[in-house]
Amino acid sequence: MADVNQYRASIETLLKQYAELGTSATDSTGVEPQLIFDRERDHYLLNYVGWQQEQYICGPAIQFDIKNGKVWFQYNATELDVIDELIAMGVAKQDIIIGFHPPYWRTSMV
User: Fold this and answer.
1) How far apart are alpha carbons 106 and 53 in whole angstroms?
2) pLDDT values of the chain reduced to their tens digit, one per residue, 110 residues
3) CA-CA-CA-CA torsion for 10, 16, 19, 20, nearest 10 degrees?
4) With a threshold of 0.85, does the pTM exceed it?
5) How far apart are CA 56 and CA 50, in angstroms?
6) Three-state SS for 95?
7) Residues 51-57: contacts with CB within 8 Å, 24+ apart?
8) Which domain holds residue 73?
9) CA dihedral 91, 95, 100, 106 (to 10 degrees)
């Protein structure tokens, strides 16, 4: 059985680590990372917002949800291998769903 509390903690830890990496670049770019955690509904998002020269930036980088004891990887605008990191943190591989893949593809990957 999935330990949803442990999954929540792993997702939050992972997103906080990536936000810290983005924070070091904030001074030079003006774009800041924002962590958005809705623990009641189990939505977890790393978002970036700010100005880079004369262009306004606002958008998600990584998003997770937890539904029915499963971690749904909903969005990834990075080249980071977040799935392997979550597995290393104790999230069971069979409890990770790639939400941005179509349902027929998800079932063929298991």
Assistant:
1) 40
2) 579 999 999 999 999 999 998 666 555 678 899 999 999 999 999 999 999 889 999 999 999 999 999 999 999 999 888 999 999 999 999 999 999 888 878 754 54
3) -130
4) yes
5) 6
6) helix
7) 57/31
8) 4-109
9) 140
Look at the chain and report how many structural domains it folds into. Answer: 1
Could you count the other beta carbons within 10 Å of the beta carbon of residue 70?
A: 18
Q: Give me the amino acid identity at 93.
A: K
Q: Pull the structure tokens for residue 2.
A: 């999935």
CATH number for position 13: 3.30.310.110
The helix/strand/coil state of 3 is coil
**Distance (Å, rounded) from C-alpha 39 to C-alpha 36?**
9
Q: Which helix (H) or strand (E) holds 71?
A: strand 70-76
**In degrees, to the nearest 5, what angle opens at C-alpha 71 toward C-alphas 36 and 21?**
45
Alpha helix positions (H), the chain: 4-29, 82-88, 103-109
